[in-house]
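Please, structure for the following, as tokens.
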Amino acid sequence: MNESPIVVIYAHPTPSRSRVNRPLADALDALPNVQVRDLYRSYVDYDIDVVAEQRVLSVSDTIVLQFPVRWYSVPALLKLWLDEVLEPGWAYGPGGTALRGKSLLIVVSTGGTADAYGPEGTHGHPIAEFLLPLEQTALLCGMTWLPPVVLHDAHNADAQALADHIAHVCGRLGTHPAPAEVQA
């Protein structure tokens, strides 16, 4: 098993059509101390190896969930991964301390513009509101919620914007803050 202080759980159901997530996952995978786990490549049958996934998380300091926002949520396989891997007694609840003190970073892309994610926009709410279930998951598991990284309007981003986003995320993982102490 490849042990890394940072594990990226990458979930893109159509990576061949990805303009930013696939290149970003490749760039992150090339970084030292980062392991990228491609859910759609590893679990084409949706049969998640819960023990293996928990093992990887247990030796990581920072967990990154990287995905395109799909229907205001995470892709289906990532939702299944969250349901199965973050089980009670392991991730939360009585005896569930495996993730306590670790950090969670969300890295997402959207098809809509930043203006579309606001009270007057098409989606009516800021992107942060659509990420609330993930923030609450981090809190429930005793993790530190790091400010998310969002690339809006990914379909229309030019090459420079994509390169800047990838450089920003790679730099952020190289300089992310250490997990805060969590009070028991």
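The chain has one domain: 6-175. Residues 147 and 182 are 17 Å apart (CA to CA).
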